[in-house]
Fold this protein.
Amino acid sequence: MFSFDFSTWHSLRDLVLRPCALVAAGVLIGWAVHYRLRKMIEIGRVAKDTFFGVLLRSVGKLPIVWGLLMGLNWATRVISLPPFAQGRLVNLLFAVLIWTVMTFLQRAIGQFISLRMASEGSPASTSLLLNLVTATIYITGIILVLDEFDVSITPMITALGVGGMAIALGLQETMANIFAGLHILLTKQVRIGDNIRLEGGAEGQIIDITWRYAKIHTVTNNIITVPNNKLAAAIITNYDMASDRMQSVSVMDVAFTVTVGVAYDSDLDMVERVTLEVARDILTRLDPSLDIDEGSSTAPAVRFHTFGDSSILFNVNLHTTSFRSQYLIRHEFIKALKKRFEEENIVIPFPIRTVRMEQKTE
């Protein structure tokens, strides 16, 4: 007859069924928490740009991993293992837990930095800041894990201190760029998304600040890399840094100048009137949001300034609400002004030089 061995059933239950059931229960709890949090974000019960919303988005699928770790921890308590093996298994679970917590903190702090910079007008965060935050978080996690495994970190810190001095001496330029990048970020000399002009004449938009250099996207669709220490010491025109006058308006104001010359026999009053008419027509068509009414600080202006060799020179001061649109406006303005001057018989003279040649007689 068939006989049932209860001792075998108890052994199978204690070694296999109960641990597997506990692990499955932990995973199920983690999945339920993950599903609930995901639904809260999808149905819009939590705004993405709030503190709680950032935390929910940073968690991701980590609740499932945490549920698995919880189930494994329960399983280790019902399985009879040697003390050394059980201690090492617990240490391993703690190391994985620390790794997941550090991942969560890195995501959350990175998103908080991005939201903070976006609130200040920067569309994105910098590689330098995010890399420093990531390195700090994971180094802290490694220290905690080593301490859990009873590894003394004092000798390591001493060795890193002595070695760090030698490395710093050999990497002076690199360290200078790192601290210069931090100086730029903290003083807000330039921010991600700012349109700038360097003292050498190069213009473009700051798209990133790394640990070594800043990336500038030029209007010709090229990338210029400038070392951070050079950028920190350079003379920069920042078109996005609001002045006291610009803080009272809600749109950006970029000013630029077009230099023109007319013949000496021109009627300067007529030249000024025609030039302003062309400027207002171009600005109305290409930048309708700009205030060009007479008396406005952004209205076009004509200023004569020099009696040149062959012409009277004047500047046309123009404004626009977009940094990159100034090039199109300049392009269209020059074409329209030349055509209108031809219609009004206003001459833009060629440079003229009189050369006197003496002939020697024998």
Observations:
- DSSP finds ten helices and eight strands in the chain.
- The beta strands are 195-197, 203-209, 213-218, 223-227, 237-238, 254-262, 301-307, 312-320.
- The two ends are 148 Å apart (CA to CA).
- The longest strand covers residues 254-262.
